[in-house]
Amino acid sequence: MSQAELPVLTVYLVEDDPLLARHVLDALAQADGIECVGHADRLAVAREELPSRCPQVLLSDLGLPDGDGTDLIREISQISGPWRPHILVYSVFGDEAKVIHAIEAGADGYFLKGCADRDLIHAVQRAADGESPISPAIARYLLKRFAAGPEASPSGFDGQVTEEPQLSRPEHAVLRLVAQGYLAEEVGERLMMSAHTVATHVRAVYAKLQVGQRSMLGLTS
Fold first, then answer.
1. Contact 209, 164 (CB under 8 A)
2. pLDDT for position 79
3. In what order do the strands lie in the sheet with 34-40?
4. DSSP letters along 86-138, please?
């Protein structure tokens, strides 16, 4: 297959910091096989443009001048038509609760600002492949979140604490190694599983958070 025939991975960026946005856009432009099909610095602009741009990956900040990026994530994740992008949050780790809210809203991955360009590009590529990119800091927080048990979960409408699913042994082992800084391939080697299986376990952890949120809101069948 020639260079011209290689499939292109399309990305849409939502970021209000002009310097950071320029840096990310330049990094995406220099990566082989990636095309940025749009950039918004406001939620309103993203909501207007996304349906026509149809990116494979939505790379979004959370703190925006006209609202919370989590609202956009929730709206996009509920799309039931032929187009629904993989959602990768690219934000700071200032508020741990925002991590959980973004994942519960439907984010497929959460990566921290300040990472190396190659790590961000790798995360975008993994998100497009259906994986759930995760940084060590996020893995450490998720381990604490699940270790805290049901008492850390939000209360339901009846005032009762809502139990959320707990981690399986493989999921806990994967998160523990990611939290220590190991890459998916290295985690797989240590746990004697493929990198694909490692990614499946991370995705399952994200899904458990989303199921817990849906249960709290009475959205489960």
1. yes
2. 79
3. 34-40, 9-14, 57-60, 86-91, 109-112
4. EEEEEE--S-HHHHHHHHHHT-SEEEETT--HHHHHHHHHHHHTT---B-HHH
Tell me if residue 33 falls in helix, strand or coil: coil
110, two tokens: 């959460």
* pLDDT tens, residue by residue, 36-95: 999 999 999 999 999 899 999 999 999 899 999 999 999 998 877 677 899 998 887 666
One-letter amino acid identity for 104? E
Alpha carbon of 218 to those of 32, 46, 146, 152: distances in Å?
44, 29, 21, 19
Q: Which residue has the tokens 């008492």?
A: 151
Structure tokens at 207: 């899904």
Quote the CA–CA distance of 174 and 191 in Å, as a whole number: 8
Q: Tokens at residue 218, please?
A: 């009475």
The segments of the chain whose pLDDT lies below 50 read 1-2, 151-161, 214-221
pTM: 0.78
Residue 165 and residue 99: Cα distance in Å, rounded? 18
Q: How many residues does this entry show for the chain?
A: 221
